[in-house]
Structure of 4-aminobutyrate aminotransferase-like enzyme:
Amino acid sequence: ADDYSQLLEERKAVIGRNLSISYRKPLKIVKGALQYLYDDKGDTYIDCVNNPSHVGHCHPVVVRAMQRQIATLNTNSRYLSDHLVEYAEELLRTLPSNLAVVYFTNSGSEANDLAIRMSRHFTGRKDVMVLDHAYHGTSTVAMEMSPYKFDGKGGFGQMPYIHKAVSPDLYRGEFRYDDPLAGEKYAIDVQQILEKNPGKIAAFICETLLGVGGQIPLPDHYLENVYKHIRAAGGVCIADEVQVGFGRVGEKFWGFELQDVQPDIVVLGKPIGNGHPLAAVVVTREIADAFNNGMEYFNTFGGNPVSMVTGRTVLQVIQSEQMQQHALETGNFLMEGLRDVMSKHPIISDVRGYGLFVGAEMVKDKTTMAPAVDEINAVVEKMKERGFLLSTDGPLYNVLKIKPPMVFNKQNAADMVRHLDEVLTELNF
Ligand code: PMP
């Protein structure tokens, strides 16, 4: 790290001290190719964690399409463009038919912000219900919807129009894996918040697998019940698919499909542009009509030709390379391997996920469930030294998150699992 100390100091001086950086000894990554990243020393890393590079870093088909378009035209969406309409149509074909209109933005935060605004127009209400460890982004409104931030270190606290429902955590929560009715029971909290706030809640928003909240799959029937309660109370149901969507969960293309529900608004981000700033809000025609109230909507970069061509190509690559099926098979293989490691090392207490959206929780002791924070950081650091990039998440910072580019293969998974086993042995965990 010493050779980077000057660059690190310069970075802090000119771009702020709170822009976080991965790893105690930071990496200087200079090149990416599919699931591999390369540093300035020529070392190769298997990327197990960067999900925005959905079809792989610098995927050649995507890069070529982007190069062609950027050399031809990039401007705002105030001119007619085939790319804009064609991509919107292709995106809509992946979604249930109730979702009919797409608004393009440049980041997940911006998209969530717009989704909330649209739900407020539609309902004439202001309040929003979120899950209690959620993260929905970094714009001011998105931060207000993110307990992970407003309740966290340096947070500004909860706004009066935000309501927090309990996260349905089957490992740590009140209702656990052994309770077949957990989904219904967790939804009661949502119902009670609605009863206490009649006519106030414009929208309920959650991820369809909790990401920053700890890589938590939702219990069966959870969203079905939540959406029923929200709709009965006149609110709008928003699915934040910024991390979960676009084939990653394997069994389905969208996370909400795992719960057998149809949201009124779906928010997209990270994977759809493969690392290029592209995000979207997809809404029902009724919500779009309410938003179209005379005020112009314009977004300088939203829907620009380079973004549209990028998005279309990413979608085509997912389909032509059958990445959803690949994520399912590789993810199942990976989780099997992780469960083997769990059986040998008591520090791992839970392995969970769908497809290539996987979490492994680490505790000091299985009875107290005390989070093994220093320990997990040591594991992440050692794995990095062995060439595997991982990270942590969760309200207690003790969940190993594994969300590699979708081209991550079984050999990568087997290697990662073997090294994890060795690192845990080395550290006596
Ligand atoms: N929603 C979720 C679920 C996220 O995880 C994130 C980013 N981590 C966002 C929204 C915000 O997206 P962005 O960083 O692109 O603004």
In short: The longest strand covers residues 99-105.
